[in-house]
Structure formats: structure tokens, C-alpha cells
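Entry 14. Structure prediction run on the chain below.
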Amino acid sequence: MSICCTGRDGETASVPRTALSLPKARIAATRLLSATVVLGDPESCLAHVCLGNALVYQAQYYDALIHLDQARLLSHDSKHCLGFWAYACALAGLRERAEEVLSKLTSLPRHEYVPSYFVGLIHLGLGQVDLAIDWFTRACDERTHWVIFLNSDPAFDCMSKHSRFKDMVERIELRTKGKV
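Output returned:
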């Protein structure tokens, strides 16, 4: 399974694990720590999210979905947990489930805040790079704290060569030496 996308909507391409910006050891440590917390407090939504995301980075999508689904249930379908869960669904090849969440989030009334970051993340998982960048740009305009991950999270490595993505990162001054 791939974890990254190309410039054409709907297409994905495999990326060598060494291309990820987070070291494997850091991802493994996060996974171990999160698993320990889940064992100690199985009702911790945050621990399930962290463990699920660490498993996503290791391309263990179905194991990730177990924890992200638990986080979703514990959070009563918070928009954040739905976003992470749908992103993992998309990467696991469960497009219909990811698209259902995407449709749900984008059809909510305007008075219900939906973090643009998570809509962009789902589009990214579905391989819809241009739409993802549109939504991440909205997230930047919203000044959401989630955008600090745009230049460090391995999920975004596949967009680092796109000029629109570079412009967005530059605009919000997320420059990192040797990156973007």
C-alpha cells in the first residue's frame, strides 16, 4: 500500500519509508508509548489517536483503523477523530467510507465548525492533491493550530514539490532548513 500521492487526482504512488521526514525510530517510539498508554487507560481517546496515527505511518492501516475507530467512538464522532479515521480508511483502500465522512463533514450546516485541515487530510488520503491543498489553504486562513504539521508530518511529504503547497508553507512561515 502507498502512503503518498502524485500530482494527479486519484492516483497514488509508493514512497520509500526512508523518504519520510520523521525517523522510523521516532515513529516506533510513539507507537510504543501510545500502546502503553492505551493499555493503562483504554478509554483515552488521545492515546488511540496517537497509536492509530503511528500505525498509519508504518503502513499498518487495518491495525490503525482499530484504534482510530475506538477514538472515534470515545469522542462521539468528533470531527477531528472522524478526519483521522477517514484518512486511514482512504489509505487502506476503503474509499467509500472515507468519501462518506467527507460528504458528512462538508454538508454540515455553516454554524457547525468543521476543521478544514481534516477535510484536506481526507482529500489527501483519497489522492485528490489539488482539493487537499485548497482545504489546507483554508485551514491556514482559519489560523488553525493543525497547520504547524504541514511541514513535518510524513503525510504531507508527497506535496512538498507542489508549488501551491510550497507557497502556502512559505506564506505561513513554516520554513525548515532542508525542507520545502
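The longest helix spans residues 24-40.
Filed with the rest of this week's runs.
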